[in-house]
Amino acid sequence: MAQAYGLYTHIRANRWRSALLLAGLFLLVYLMVFAGALAGRALTEDASLEWLLRGAWRDLIRALPFATLGAAIWVLIAYWFHQALIDAVTGGREVTRQEEPRLYNLLENLCISRGITMPRLKVMEDPALNAFASGLNQRQYAVTVTRGLIDRLDDAETEAVLGHELTHIRNGDVRMLVIAVIIAGAIGFFAELIFRMMFHAGGSARPSTWSGRRSREDGKGSGGAAAAIAIAIGLIAIAWFLSVLIRFALSRSREFLADAGAVELTKNPDAMITALRKIQGRGELEGSPSAIMEMCVDNPRSGFVDLFATHPAIDARVDALVSFAGGHDPGPIALADAHHATPQIAENGGGEQAEAETSRDKPFLPGEPPLSPGGASGPWGPRRGG
Questions:
Q1: Across 122-142, average pLDDT
Q2: CA 223, CA 219: separation in Å to the nearest integer?
């Protein structure tokens, strides 16, 4: 079985997904340009639907170089400035070893142990408990951690969270998520641009009786404007929906794999479990857009909204760590205040606290039960025997 941190098939799949996402961006932009051309003709010409569709197609062919250039410029801007935009939204700032020695040393030790290029370390002054990785290449990669997480997690738990984010970087998840956000932003921008153009043109267009007669005399027909506008709006809605669907369609298994990677890096499944239990229900970054939350350790959702969640539930992730990594679940954890990282276990989970505390310091080494050849499979592979 491949180690959790070296899931090369997952990495290769992410590379293909990233390339397909970029190709999908350009296709969706072309669809938006066609919709805009169709709406523009419908608002300024009295013609049949067939005539308007043919005219919009000709307009698209003529606009292809400009649409391609515009999409490419958008990608380049996002490539160079997306981290600055993320920092502007979240308030994240880069920190040095002198400013955050504990956090910096934990990240540096993990990187040294695996020969990984150390990403930039950033801190958000936010009481929520969360963290995320961002960037598109080795020079840009950064790990951002909230002040709440730094204050409330102990060293082992913080190290597990950092290992989780490093695994996202190593597996290519971060690059894929950033590209998906770029696509959604581009489609949203073009959709707003086209709708503004339609409303402006709709208010100023006044087809005359002469232009209607001229259209019929030229064989253009008439009466297709309403249908053309409806089709244009439908295409814009489809493009927007697909851009959102792309983000939701990204495999939620990436979180299971990142949890497994953290265990493989730290040799401590219990630290990852208690970190997730502390983060559970406390990860919401107030004022941050959904695109930021999708990159975090946890993106809390509940009820019907969970159908579109980008992350599996914390309970499912903890169950996977217990079943396939030999971890121990202390149950829900109640935190006393922001200045104490030591958890107070809720009454329903208090009986397992001593065992969890003992196992947290026990390294997860090859002395664990062997893998069962015919064992049940899980998010990381075969279940452990015993």
A1: 92
A2: 13
